[in-house]
Amino acid sequence: MNFDLSAFAPIILILGLYLLVAPLLPVKKTWARSSVAIVCVLLGLRYVYWRLNSTVLPYDEQFGIEFIWIWFVFIVEVAIYIEAVVFFLIMSRYKPRHEEADAGEAALIARGVYPPVDVFIPTYNEPPEVLEKTIVGAAGIDYPNLTVWVLDDGKRDWLCGMCETEGARYLTRPDNSHAKAGNLNNALLYAEGDFIAIFDADFVPHRNFLKRTIGLFDDPEVGIVQTPQHFFNQDPIQFNLDLTKDWPDEQRLFFDKMAECRDAWGVAFCCGSCSVTRRAALRAAGDQYPTESITEDLLTTLKLSRAGYKTRYLNERLSMGLAAESLEGFFVQRARWCRGGIQSIFLPDGPLGPGIPLLNRLLFFPWSWLIQYPSRFVIMIIPIVVLWTGLMPLHFTSIEELIFYQFPVFLTYYLFMRWMLPYHYMPVLSTAQSWFATFRLLPTVLSSIIKPFGVPFRVTPKGNLNNTEGFDALTFFFILIFIVLTVLGVIVNLFPETDILEAVQFFPVALFWAGLNIITLLLALLMCFDAPRKRSEERFDADEDTVLHGDGSAIVRVCDLSLNGCRVSYSGLDNIAQIDIEGVGLVAAKTLRHFPWDNPTYTSLKFIHTPETRRALIRKLFGGGYSNAVKQVFTGTVIGKLFRRMFGPPLT
């Protein structure tokens, strides 16, 4: 059998264009982004057209299970294409707001008139070590006219005392109706500021948060300014794969890239925490946060939009929060977002209700929540169905046609992501993350469609309420079953005596597909084990001079710093008693251990705080000068780490 090498022509053309043209395209220019997005959409449309006319409609068998299966797989592929088209549409524009924020901040300072701002910190059951950072950080915002409100649905006496100490106002209510939205609405009865800044109980604002955001409200049509949510710890995916310094957290794609692109289309939306809302805009929309959904933030944007106000997105690191620390917290959070997004389509204030332009309906519709997890599940089961039943997912023509029509789509989508999102996407790893979540979130998708309401709001467990050494047995065993079925299906069809798949020419395709699925599922399997977190406080890399005091004094280099202690270059001092930290002052300290085997050698210190030094160090660490973000991704390093994680010893 002769193989037609011309089938590779589109792939060669795409690779050539990428290597020659992509380096010349300015990724931040709308014309360049739109051009590349159009190419991706057209190639996808070419593939869908071929699928329909060459692999679906030619199927001439009578209505039956194979007929249904072929059409089902095709409809799923069309849904994936629709999700991709919406994604490319969103990413085809780009609108940074830094210059507007600069101008707004300069005008605010020049006027010298600072409109009153109420800072809301809604809380329910977060422990003291989580809330302390948020309250201290909020009280330390560099803005002369603000009131910090701690909205306690947990009714805790110790929190009332903490608020008195830190200069925040403490507010509670008779009941906890409507969860977070109800808590915010109760606070509206007492707050009198022109603007409302909201921080979840585990988010610490930087000192310049309000000066960077309030100026954007000089545009009278702006109702909400949303800023990105960054984290000072690693999420469970990073931690469980041992990629804490090599792979960004799961939310970076949205907050670093997509949200700014949505703003360019006028469809940025409030994400709750780290946002500022104009009180007059909220009053125009009823002076209440929506209580119909468990995610009030998206509905707030839509209500204000109907009242004539816009949501803007300022892509600057202006706060740091605590990412979900365990798989339990990770899935509680994602399930809430998923259900809330799907609930919105059933509500009159949602994207399908009156008063929203057609394009905005398209871009606010929860395509990703509805399509992503069902389609990923189907992709996982197709090789299993093919290998164990012989049911073909399409009327097979030839491998050459698959290469000619399908492979260019995969290649183009991959190259698009590498060009536009070089540090946020690796095909197998990104897919493994999505598949891992599928087993837990697919039931949420289905139940939300069938019965969208009636499930209570669940707070993401954080701090000492969190089980950080868990094991997701349900997901683990589902993934294991899928791996075993796929492997056994391949083995059964390798031998003529036991093979089930009659279409022998399709077996190489099924084998390739099964192999990719097995690799992806193995990576997802590793995510099921919560690696132990040994530190009670996150450490930040540092590189600054300081002075140690003990039996004499010595200038040393601080290598890393946390609220509990630090690591410094070896000083040779005995009986270390104090360390002089810039911006904090003298902090009592004691030596924990030396590291004489390192080169250079280090000393580890533990701090003995007074209330003043602890407060000052919180503001130093979380006020904007430090970050644990992964700034650059090296593919080789990530692959090496994943290989060691898969075949090396378990994390301890």
Give me the secondary-structure topology.
Blueprint: H1 9-21, H2 30-56, H3 65-91, H4 98-111, E1 117-123, H5 128-139, E2 146-152, H6 157-166, E3 169-171, H7 179-188, E4 195-198, E5 203-205, H8 209-213, E6 222-226, H9 236-240, H10 252-264, E7 275-278, H11 279-284, H12 296-306, E8 310-313, E9 319-321, H13 327-343, H14 358-364, H15 367-389, H16 399-405, H17 407-420, H18 427-450, H19 473-494, H20 507-526, E10 540-550, E11 552-561, E12 565-569, E13 578-581, E14 585-595, E15 602-608, H21 611-625, H22 635-647
Parallel strand pairs: 1-2, 1-4, 2-3, 6-8
Antiparallel strand pairs: 4-7, 5-9, 6-7, 10-11, 10-13, 11-12, 12-15, 13-14, 14-15
InterPro entries: Glyco_trans_2-like (IPR001173), Glycosyltr_2/OpgH_subfam (IPR050321), Nucleotide-diphossugar_trans (IPR029044)
Main location: membrane
Organism: Yoonia vestfoldensis SKA53
Radius of gyration: 27 Å
Strand count, sense and closure of the main sheet? 7 strands, mixed
- Number of extended strands: 15
- CA-to-CA gap between the ends? 54 Å
Structural class: alpha+beta
- Bin the strand percentage: 5-15%
Q: Which stretches of 5+ consecutive residues score pLDDT under 50? A: none
Average of per-residue pLDDT values: 93
Tell me roughly what share of residues is in helical segments: 40-55%
Order of strands, widest sheet: 3-2-1-4-7-6-8
> What is the overall silhouette?
globular
Counted by DSSP, the helix tally is 22
GO cellular component, one term: plasma membrane
Main location: membrane
Protein name: Putative cellulose synthase catalytic subunit protein
Pfam family, one: Glycos_transf_2
